Amino acid sequence: MRALVTGVAGQDGSILSEMLLEDGHEVAGLVRREPDVALDGVRLVHGDLLDAESLRRAVAEAEPDWIFHLGAPSFVPLSWERPVETFTAIAAATAVLFDAAASLDRDVRVYASSSSEIFGDAGESPQNEASPCRPLTPYGVAKLAALQLARVWRGRGLHVSAGIAYNHESERRPERFVTRKVTRGAAAIALGLADELVLGDLDAVRDWSAARDVVAAARLMVEQDEPDDYVLASGVGRTVRELVDVAFAAAGVDPDEHIRVDEALVRAPQATLPVGDPEKARERLGWRPTISFEELIGDMVAHDLRDLQAAREPPSSCP
Ligand SMILES: C[C@H]1O[C@H](OP(=O)(O)OP(=O)(O)OC[C@H]2O[C@@H](n3cnc4c(=O)[nH]c(N)nc43)[C@H](O)[C@@H]2O)[C@@H](O)[C@@H](O)C1=O
């Protein structure tokens, strides 16, 4: 199969591309500019989520059998600073891609990445595909608009599935997200490179999974006869404090001496706990997360320890 992956330089896109290439598929990756990560084997096509014509051209050029639409702004607080850009890059770009996919002279199957932020104050926890959607951020509203677009295009015959993904992580997560901030911080403290880690709300709850597991579900969706929406989650809510405990234990450091809370980083509290019910994905896709929370965070800490250690070692001198 020939796949077009948007967001190919990001965490999910790069992981998915590797999986597809390993299975012998061809991958075209949408990039805005030359990527600063290695994307071996990926054919780059240029396009910008904020530029509809460039997206149409990229789809025509890639001639895909599958489109995995993973590209989007993803740091939720930034959507308050850039609401229009966020909405355009998420909702409008999704409409352009669906329209371009439906206009191709070939059968194309599409996966669109949605988010648990669509639920916001849903009023029930855990959430499933039928839970009320009351998003609380511009990002969540844009993701809900994109999901609704998937549903209406599906109604008109496009094979488009959506993953309503809860937080999913890996060593490729940028450090502005809490998991990577914590694993990097714990590793830096363990190596004596830092003394404190400044965080926001330690009682905030999230449902964390491994990005590799979540991305694997996207593959399963395009292979189904019928397209649909699926919650992708572990089903377990954990606090940021639990995340800190697991990461610092993996690094061999006592967190109590090193964590400081900065009120400026604390977000508005959420009445509904963002925890997902992945039953439908389990039942219909046979989807099973394979990486536990402890394993995920342990691997991220180990990666950060290696990375920071390598960065501080003096370069070997040439003879
Ligand atoms: C499903 C959803 O998942 C992600 O969005 P997010 O949940 O906002 O991710 P995050 O890692 O920024 O925050 C997680 C929690 O951790 C709390 N927290 C405490 N202290 C810090 C802190 O110091 N930094 C950050 N970033 N968060 C902190 C923070 O208040 C929040 O409760 C994106 O992939 C998004 O694209 C997406 O769709």
From TrEMBL:
Coiled coil: none
Gene Ontology BP, a term: 'de novo' GDP-L-fucose biosynthetic process
Pfam families per record: GDP_Man_Dehyd (PF16363)
Keyword annotations of the record: Lyase
Keyword Lyase belongs to the record: yes
Domain of life of the source: Bacteria
Keyword Lyase set for record: yes
Domain NAD(P)-binding: 4-300
Cofactor(s) listed: NADP(+)
Top-level EC class: lyase
Catalytically driven reaction(s): GDP-alpha-D-mannose = GDP-4-dehydro-alpha-D-rhamnose + H2O
GO molecular function: GDP-mannose 4,6-dehydratase activity
The protein's Enzyme Commission number: 4.2.1.47
Family, similarity comment: Belongs to the NAD(P)-dependent epimerase/dehydratase family. GDP-mannose 4,6-dehydratase subfamily.
Role description: Catalyzes the conversion of GDP-D-mannose to GDP-4-dehydro-6-deoxy-D-mannose.
Name of protein: GDP-mannose 4,6-dehydratase
Native source species: Capillimicrobium parvum
